[in-house]
Amino acid sequence: MRNHQTHSAKRKGLLAGVLAAGVAGLALSGGVIGNTVPVLADPVRVDAPQQSFGFADVVQKVSPAVVSVRVTEDIKPAAATAQQFGDPFQGLPEDHPLRRFFDIPGQKGVPPHASPRHAMAQGSGFFISDDGYLVTNNHVVDGGSKYTIVMDDGKEFGAKLIGTDKRTDLALLKVDAKDGQKFSYVEFGDDNAVRVGDWVVAVGNPFGLGGSVTAGIVSARGRDIGAGPYDDFLQIDAAVNRGNSGGPAFNLKGQVIGINTAIFSPSGGNVGIAFAIPASVAKDVVQSLKQNGSVERGWLGVQIAPVTDDIADAVGLGDAKGAIVTLPDNQTPASKAGIETGDVITAIDGETVSDPRELARKVADYRPGTAIDVTVWRNNAAKDIKVTLGNLANLDEAASLNSQGSGAPVNPSSLSGYGLTVTPSEDGQGVVITDVDPDSTAADKGMQAGDTIVAVNGNTVASQDEVRKALSDAAKSGRKAALFQLKNGDQNRFVALPVAKS
Known about the structure:
Blueprint: H1 2-30, H2 56-62, E1 66-75, H3 99-102, E2 117-127, E3 133-136, H4 138-141, E4 146-150, E5 156-165, E6 170-175, E7 199-204, E8 212-223, E9 233-236, E10 248-250, E11 256-263, E12 274-278, H5 279-292, E13 298-299, E14 303-306, H6 309-315, E15 323-326, H7 333-337, E16 344-348, E17 351-352, H8 356-364, E18 371-378, E19 381-388, E20 390-391, E21 413-415, E22 420-424, E23 431-436, H9 441-444, E24 452-456, E25 459-460, H10 464-476, E26 481-488, E27 491-498
């Protein structure tokens, strides 16, 4: 014991000598006077809980509520003619002796094996109530004639389709429980509390394997993948493959925070980028499907585009936020209320609108027949317009008007400084662009021959002089850009061009 203490003391003395030598070296090389020891800053550190980590407890609790969805689709055979089946004796008399070798039994022109066929598709789903209501994707059940639910333990049940919503790609099925059977189910969580980097567990039926579990993190929020007007997907990196569609993505509390719907995959397999419908969206849609079998949404009736920095400068807005409006040819709730083409919608019922997607979601949250206050920016001022929303589900799209030919250009004129050559439209509504300088800003912005300039800065134009006057007024008012409203066929769009210097 004494020898150990002596040895330990010697080690401490040796260590102190080494440290002292190091400090002395610093003092000599760095010009530090004395034996002051430098203080080093502690590195940034996140204290993780000191316990074993895994997903087994979550998976064990939620797995009985996750199911495989098998969808049967009937495919009717197409009628065929004898010529399609290569009858070399077409035209022979009915009583000809060779006929018996080439006549096709059954329906004339249809081969004997052409009975109705069945196609099978598979996806995933999960129970949301103990009496058998379950959620999946619309694209999983679309076109189906029969639905079979396969439980985690292999038992199978028939199900009926309650309703679908193509705009959010959601569907609701119902299993008829026998003898009062109760099903394990899960609940929706609060996806608004989910942060990028939080753990997520995906359970589903990839490639028909059933009961497969993968884990990852939330990679991003608010993703727009071009699937529809209400895109607001969670992006996750848990492995999701074909067959996972309609399956749940869980947080560590076992709550559904998203419904796996799509993957980004150049190769067709998992590359760690999957998209899930947020629980906040699914919860409202599912409730409406359960009550009504469909989803009713408010309809404003406008075509909208983002407000770019150039457009904001052109209309006098301080921030590039909101949605700029073009109105279709048919009557809509917006046009009846007085909203005009060129208005920028900045708020709904006092809540700011940042972009077209947010506007679409806000309007869809209201029921048809609801009166809302729409704030628009027009002529350098904000204005509130009360609009009674229509029903998007019952929207009867009006037939597009046939566009008129522009005819041969008459007295084309050049808009100096803009790279545009224009001529009056035959119907007197706007001026038609006949040529665009390929090196001009107009060409860079996508303006092309055949476009009709309908208005400049909200002022309708019917001649080159009116276009010039609108541009001159924009320059005099100090605007950096002029807003051109263009029409090509039935499509309206806006382009902002820098005001040319005189």
